[in-house]
TrEMBL record:
This is F-box domain-containing protein. Pfam families: F-box-like (PF12937), FBA_3 (PF08268). The lineage of its organism: Eukaryota, Viridiplantae, Streptophyta, Embryophyta, Tracheophyta. Gene3D superfamilies: 1.20.1280.50. Residues 26-76 form the F-box domain. NCBIfam families: F_box_assoc_1. PANTHER family: BNACNNG10540D PROTEIN, F-BOX DOMAIN-CONTAINING PROTEIN.
Amino acid sequence: MNIMEKLCAGPRVTKEARSKKMHQELSNMDSLPREIALDILSRLPITSLIQIKWVCRSWRSLAQDPLLATMHLSRMNDNDPGLILHCDLPLQNHLYSLHLSAPDIVTRLRGPMISEFAIVGSCNGLLCLWHSLYKDKCYIYNPFTRDFKELPRPEQFQTQTRVAMGFGFHPGTKEYKVVRIVYYRNEDEASSFQVRRYLPESNVQVLTLGSGRSTWRSKGKTCYQILGSGRPYQSNVLLNGRLHWLTCRHRHQSLRLLVSFDLADEQFQEVPNPDGMFGRRCSHLAILRGYLSAIVQGFRRLSIWVMKEYGVKESWVKEFNIGDHLPRHMDLNQEQFIYIPEYPINCSQARVLCLLKNGEILLEYKRRSLFSCDLKSGAFRELVGGSLPESFSTIVHIGSLKLIN
């Protein structure tokens, strides 16, 4: 055999060996009991699970097993979540995926065929989307499986001024629901500017997914004004089957309240606030370590209040403080990407996303950067992405194989 024959034969042997090894691994996997195979697959990242269904017919059957979706989602809840970046420019129709285990890899997702959309919320791997141009269109979308469903159109109001939205799952009823709160002017009853400004009419609408009654149901009026902080579709957080919003009563807009909407009985209820905590300083809500948390803007810092026992006023604790700039003695560390801004961080443009497993707080800043804050040292670490979009909104998202019923 001459040199050329050896060079040609080398790769061929390697390819044959790889093929033999792969067939052996497939055979080993097929010989495992189904529950063990599902347990192994449930430990894989969502991107790998999407790919395995193309390996062979038996693996496709495993990937489509509803039990795998449940097991995988349960395991992913114990890890740092993934992030969905919704690009704002030039159009609101681009989605990117980023996982905190590899923040330098930003993956463009194939979004739904919608010209522009806002993201209402994320729940168990599903996104609820609201059409930005045609306000009566709503969708449920799995960005990894690309499973997609358009929901029935709700009732519209000619004098509609704004809409607040919510999307979630109740563990007791096992139902997914979309909540829509419409504010509109009643021109017949409200003639003065003051009345139109402070006493808008409202209508609460609820849709249950996967039921024979998948139509919007009116729940009547609400006395609460949902505060959106510039993001009316993303102003809610979900905890224990309840959607939570910052609100104010129509006549007392300087006093911010915290209300919940129970997805089981579909009723609003005020959540007790600690004395003197809110006012206008509470900017947004978050879920940290499974606790309802409120982010309050103080003088050149953010304070994070945590409700340790749900519904108990006395259980609110100011647990974290985030300064607006790094200690000046810290140097730029290229390996850890420690970032020292030239100017103090504007707390009003920082949004708390989640608490990481290493104890750091993850923040979005000015819709263009992602930082984590070490609560012990006060240092910020920029999560350097491969190609972050110019402007984006960040949604904490756990990828799953969940199908839309």
